[in-house]
Design brief:
The protein is 26% helix and 23% strand. It is an alpha+beta fold. Helix 6 (170-179) packs across helix 7 (193-212).
Length: 271
């Protein structure tokens, strides 16, 4: 599923093609993709507006509009946003098309139909409960320590909790825990100050490296131009097949389920 590095890449690569451009029409091929307001209102309020900016918060993409409303998009498990020429036909997974005034269309594809869009005046109604952004300077080791303090959930589950830290999901939680040598089942409150520092550094490193590689195309993720990201080629444990070995010590990588998420780790390096 697209996580912080994938959504950051989508934001960066959409920006030059959509900011400053007007929305001339909307085609909805599956109405359920619109969460708020009603489908009729969503279309009538969007058409005629210009996109004034694109930002990211956690795994959400936020399009600013001339009316001061925002169009918020969440790609969930399998969503992608693909730029297409005006003549392009939707494929079987296209759920919505935004028609722009520069002969471009933005296709929202989503095989599993879990992705969502909201058109709202106050973005906090949708994203107000998200935790801190892990790549901002204000996300310090002290802040991470505070967020883990007294938490009795497994660290893997805490890292994936969007109200604790925004933007990290299954893949980058596994990678950060491997880099920090921390077992995914350790309780949040059990981490020593040094372990918190290592984890903080690992989170920054794995996310920045993945942004540099334009995200990880392990599943359906595509960049807006249709290219794949290459971040998964650097993965040490995430999405490894059973029988693969730890790149550090050669021990077979294990897969366990932590709160319904498949978690990959090295039983020797991660304690
Ligand atoms: Zn190992």
């Amino acid at each position: 599923m697209p996580e912080l590095p994938e959504v950051e890449t989508i934001k960066n690569e959409l920006l030059p093609y959509i900011v400053g451009h007007g929305i001339t029409g909307i085609t909805l091929l599956w109405d359920g993709i619109v969460r708020q307001p009603s489908v009729e209102e969503f279309c009538s309020r969007l058409i005629g507006q210009r996109i004034t900016g694109v930002t990211r918060r956690g795994k959400y993409l936020i399009l600013g509009l001339t009316s001061n409303e925002v169009l918020i998009i969440h790609l969930k498990m399998t969503g992608s946003l693909v730029l297409q020429p005006v003549s392009a036909k939707p494929n079987k997974f296209t759920r919505a098309i935004l028609h722009l005034d520069n002969e471009t269309q933005l296709h929202f594809r989503d095989p599993r139909k879990l992705g969502r869009m909201w058109l709202v005046e106050d973005k906090n109604a949708i994203i107000g409960k998200l935790g801190p952004e892990p790549l901002e300077a204000s996300f310090t080791p002290q802040l991470l320590a505070q967020r883990l303090n007294n938490r009795t959930a497994p660290i893997k589950a805490i890292l994936c909790d969007q109200t604790c830290i925004a933007g990290i999901g299954n893949m980058y939680a596994d990678e950060a825990l491997f880099a920090a040598k921390i077992h995914p089942l350790r309780l949040g409150k059990s981490l020593s100050p040094d372990e918190v520092k290592h984890l903080h550094r690992a989170i920054g490193q794995v996310l920045c490296a993945a942004i540099e590689d334009k995200g990880a195309s392990v599943d359906t993720y595509l960049r807006p131009g249709g290219e794949l990201g290459t971040a998964h080629f650097q993965f040490q444990v995430a999405h490894r097949l059973s029988g693969e070995f730890c790149p550090v010590c050669g021990t077979p990588i294990e897969r366990i389920t932590v709160r319904n998420r498949g978690s990959y780790f090295c039983p020797k390096c991660q304690q």
